[in-house]
Amino acid sequence: MATSRAISISIVLDTICPWCFVGKRRIERAIALAKQRWPDFSATIDYMPYQLDSAMGNGLNKGEVYRQKFGDRATAIFERLSAAGIEEGIAFKFGGKMSNTMDSHRLIDFARLQSSETENRAVESLMHRYFELEQDIGELDVLLDAAEDAGLDRQTTKAYLDSDDGIDAVKQKIKHAQRLGVSGVPFYIINDRYGISGAEAPETFVQAFEKAFRTDE
Known about the structure:
It is built from 9 helices and 6 strands. With 217 residues, the chain is α+β, with helices and mostly antiparallel strands.
């Protein structure tokens, strides 16, 4: 007898990774498609931290960082991201400041303590603020605004972020992802078994879901 079509998805991401935002929207579309295809389908999501540059400072010019990294390819990359964003309802902007993402990952972990829905809202708000509003998610006030968007208490969150709580936990989760072989993001782990790298099309995720069902039968 087949098991219930319930899966777990671990999404490994960095909050300043634009393709992670695209991938978030695509896997959400994949989940919606799967629910249409299989009425008994359900998915639980958790987020795993990753840092593209753990040594990054704070308040860096985002455009300059991209151009130093990608050179003449930066304009083409921006155009490709903008096109992908339009398809997924994301209005990418490439100005503003870029900062170390440790505190944003701590906020996501803190939100997870309340519920997976709170965690998801925190991720969505952080990425919306960074990629669409050109806000610096390394700034405390921006982090606290995102916390409120997620339904967290501002003062409680401030006390948490002002402390060192959660730093070691985030670092350990990053090391765990690396031990699993994750070397770039976005990366998706389905049922702790199947890995998908990159912001794939929704149908690709649906096929992976189906593969997981068949294996668990």
